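Risk register update: the risk that structure generation would not scale has been downgraded. Supporting records follow, first protein first.
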Amino acid sequence: PRDAVGGSGTGTAGSGAGADGSGAVPRTLNELRQLDEWLRVEDADPQCSQMLSHAAAVHVEGRSGADLVTLLGRVVRSRDRTRAADTVGRRLAMAVMRPGADRDRFVDCLRALHDARYSVAVRAACRELSDPSDALTVDAALVADVAGRLHRAGLHKIAWTLLERLLENEQLVTPADVVEVVGGVLALPLPDAELLLRATVGRWSDVGHRDDAVTALRDAGRREAAEWVIKSLR
């Protein structure tokens, strides 16, 4: 089923498609529906259709947000749909972390998933982007930029969640990362920027790390933001 969802990108049908379908143009939604109908006509085991719908749903490369929503809707069993939605969110985040990735597409996909109430996918995307499972470091500039795009697109709560998840992770975030994110937050401008910093960096348990962040903010000319962090201690 994994190969069945890939199209003719490079090589023969399905060739070059990895776990997320990268390297191949995906089959159209109509082609996938025809494949499913063919399985039923041939009296294939129902599990074949289930596997096809899941493989198609999690193949995010080359898909619009509307396509992803439609394909997730074709996953019949609720628990399978939830699992697929989680995978979709993670793969969208991993895709946008690649050099030259289309960040607006990422935002459009999250908007479609949010509007269709696939909150599992949205949460998974924010989790993966703010705490990458396959990386030792996080791209704070990318997170700040994506959060800004989400905010400007009207997805305020998702933007907040993404920033909050990042800044809460004191083991991963460096003082330089804090400065990077603060610059993006203030550029929005985010109405609750003070609350965001006080609820995250201001509550870091590692006092030395928190003080380093304050110093970095001051050195970068973000003295007001530094005071917001300090205020959390009073």
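Supporting record for the second protein:
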Amino acid sequence: MSQLDVTSPDPNESPHLVDLEPGDATWPDILAVLQELRPHLTAELLDQVRAEGEGQGLRFTALFHQDRCVAVAGWRIIANTSAIRKFYVDDLATATGKRSRGYGAILLNALTERARDAGCTRIELDSGVQRHRAHRFYLRAGMDIVGHHFSRRLN
């Protein structure tokens, strides 16, 4: 578990970023925040995704404040023909009771800096069409809506 201090929305307490490792003891706390975005996610499914996704570059970074996970992101660096090298955020979730306090912005800003440091040309994510508050947050953060994501469920 590696930590990085970041600017705090509360001057009395400094939140810190943690790059999560497979055996990290905080995974149950992380899972609780991820489940707010992905209610279908169980500990077993998360373990499965982490095991398979690690080989595809999947990593998780969490923001802790007062020893609690307040936000978490799953991300990876992808080489493709559209961006050449992009930083893709699979999941970005802030705990319900901690939203609108600057934690999501701290995490997104840290990921943006990580993307720049890694030589990525873009930072991208998808967001469900019903997530209007999230869309306002992403637009305020300087992101643009640049396309439509199409999906077909496979049986």
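The chain has four helices and six strands. On this basis the risk owner (M.S.) recommends closing the item.
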